[in-house]
Amino acid sequence: MLKDIKPLVEAGFSLLWLRERTKRPVEADWTNLPTLSYADLKRKYREGMNVGVRLGKPSKVDGLYLHVIDMDIRDDLYLDDAIDAIEHITGLNVSEFPTVISGSGGKSRHFYFLCDRPLHSKKLWRSDEAKKVDGKSVRCAEVELFGTGKQVALPPSIHPDTAKRYRWKEEFDERHLPEIDADQIEERIEDTERGETGSIEPLGLSLGDAEHMLEMVQPWADDRDTWLRVGMALKHEFGDDGWVLFDRWSKQGRGYDKRENRAQWKTFKTDRRSLVTMRTIAKEAREAEYEAQYDEIADEFEDLPDEEVEPVEGDDDPIDFESLKHLIRLPKHLWKPPGVLGDFVDYYMATAKVPQPQLAVLAALALGSVVCGRGFVTDRDNYSSAFFAAIAETAAGKEHIKKTIEEALVAGGAEELIGYSSYTSNAGVISALLRKPKHITITDEFGRYLMSSRKSGDSNKADEQSTLMEIFGRADGRMAPKSYSTMHKTPEQIEATEGRYVVRPALTYFGLTTPEVLYKSLGAEDVNDGFLNRFIFMQSDIDYVKKNNALPQEVPKSVSAWIREHFSAYAEGEDEIGTIGDLMDPKNPPEPEVIPFTKEASDYLDMIDERYTRKMRRMKRDGSGFQGLWGRTREKAMRLSLFIALSDRRSRIGLNHIKWASDFVEHCDDRFAQQFVTQVGRHRLDPIAETVAKKIASFGPKGVSEGVLLNRCRPFANLESRDREEVIDRLLRVHGVRRVQSKSKRGRSTAIYIAKGESDE
């Protein structure tokens, strides 16, 4: 016990002893006691005591105040909703908090964080539903902020009811404590209490998405409790638009009664904070799908003779690329990068149920990007960190990207590079980098993330995008959290805040999405602000094909050895092999090894720079407004060429390396630009621009003001302001509409829009 608490005392935790196997402090007036030193605690300790920490004002860590979010889960069904509430209020993913697993068992947790000033305890969220526990009615789930006046049990205390120990989910490190601005969290709490933003937002699913989920959990229609939960989730997600799907799905159950169905549907509410949402259904559907896939694989193994289920050797013949050649638009020489990363492509294809050569090569490049991050740099100051996005239909095998990358990192002893599924704010991104200055984040439903960011007006999501953009350009610098007001802060608090930064952040970001959702979520502003051109997009040409009976294989030894060699090649002494920690120090990483371009490669860079500039000028002349898509093509190619040369085990970047990289990036950018121009522009705004142009023409030579258009043209009026501006821009550039200034009798100037071919009078 004493050994466990010493680092916490040194960090600034205000600890106190609790009675044996209880949560009750030994001292009666514990809230008013001074903070005890380690010597005081050691002197007062008796065998069997539990230990707690006083939160808020008594506990100061680096000048900031320690707080806990208590998540009490009594019914696992409400876990996802509780997590949603926490992430909404804090702006962070729960994986970013140092976490204590309660000795009570189950899913209850304590999440630790710091604030710039002490907060009082407050109930944050609770389920509407209750259950009986030991004869008492209690909420199925609750979330509470613990601050000044509260204390919580710490590991290795023993829970009074279960006799199980509290334990840290991961070994505690005070550097991993996230900082949340007190004003921000109080504002979020107030919003939740007012009900303005406290309700759990729908996922943004289509009815088709929901129907697919229900197909996976069809037996639920026979159980009333789960039947009710499905109805609640559909009502929350779609409102009354979900009735037809609910009724159709309910017919699968015994005793279906349409009248009862309709009556029950009307009782479901859409604005309750704690109701079951489609997050719960999605989770159950995924679990059912995994079980079905597992059973299918198990059946296949049972049908095989014993000698056929031996482990597959790594050098078995890979899937024949030629059989897919007629489907794939990626040039054949780009199907495999040079060197060891090409071996990874073979491994990906040999283990993929859905053969996807385009996604295989993108996964290989992402692996190279994260492994070489921070440790290597070109003589033109390019680091390896890159952003990727894989575009493929549902059930087309995108999940194999995450699986194979993570398996390779684990095999190479670099599992610390496996990052997070997403971020929730600027603070979330920075906190993740402080903990793991070099990592890969693989985000599912990337298109929905962009759509949500665009439509919700959530400042956290907008800040997150801005932070990702900044990180892309700061691979050779430092990254720090946003600065908040230092008024009313102590010098210690200011100093602690200023000391939180990351030198040479190395984030490899990988988004997975379907084409329909992605292109619906994008607009011209996403090109103009520079977010999209930081990504390398790859759209698969293979939609739905028969799945392979691919068996698991070991990661090729060439790949795991290369990861180990290029990730851990740093040490204090000349003859020592370094460790992961060398490259995971946020402030003091080792100096990177310089990998120069050869003379031929440098000359080629100058040539392609001219080519990309011509493309941008041509797009600008054409008036599409999408010339920014090629703004970073050369830079992305240089980043890829760095780890491609290392994959080829070369100490210089040769002509073949930069040529392969530039061919690949240019192919991806060209194709994405083509899809973007035809799908994004046409799908979203061109039809509305045509409608507005016709409406303007109906006013003849006198023209019409924007105010009148808003009253007379509903599709135009329904747009957000930035989309209206884009439509007006298209009217002027594409439809030949003229804009002139007209003055009223009072001298006020108004913009008048006149159709092509009309002259203003």
Textual characterization of the structure:
GO terms for molecular function: hydrolase activity, acting on acid anhydrides. This is Primase with DUF3987 domain. The structure is a single chain. The chain has about 750 residues and is an alpha+beta fold. It has four domains: about 1-195, no CATH class; about 205-295; about 340-480 and about 495-540 and about 550-680, Rossmann fold (3-Layer(aba) Sandwich); about 685-755, Orthogonal Bundle (Arc Repressor Mutant, subunit A), CATH 1.10.10. The chain has 27 helices and 24 strands. Residues about 195-200, about 270-275, about 295-320 and about 570-580 have low confidence and may be disordered. Strands 3, 4, 5, 6, 7, 10, 12 and 13 form an eight-stranded mixed beta sheet that branches. β5 (about 100) and β6 form a beta hairpin. Helices cover about 45% and strands about 15% of the residues. It is globular.
Name its key features:
alpha+beta; DNA_primase/pol_bifunc_N; 27 helices; single chain; 4 domains; 761 residues; Rossmann fold; 4-stranded parallel β-sheet; DUF3987; hydrolase activity, acting on acid anhydrides
Short description:
With about 750 residues, the chain is α+β, with helices and mostly antiparallel strands. It has 27 helices and 24 strands.
Q: What is the CATH-assigned architecture of the largest domain?
A: 3-Layer(aba) Sandwich
**Tally of extended strands?**
24
What characterizes the major β-sheet? 8 strands, mixed
CATH topology of the largest domain: Rossmann fold
Helix content class: 40-55%
β content, as a range?
5-15%
The number of domains is 4
From the spread of the alpha carbons, the general shape counts as: globular
Figure out the total of helices. Answer: 27
The chain-level mean pLDDT equals 80
Distance between the termini: 89 Å
Low-pLDDT runs = 194-199, 271-275, 293-321, 569-578
Counting helices, strands and paired strands, the structural category is: alpha+beta
Radius of gyration: 29 Å
InterPro entries: DNA_primase/pol_bifunc_N, DUF3987, PriCT_2
Protein name: Primase with DUF3987 domain
GO molecular function: hydrolase activity, acting on acid anhydrides
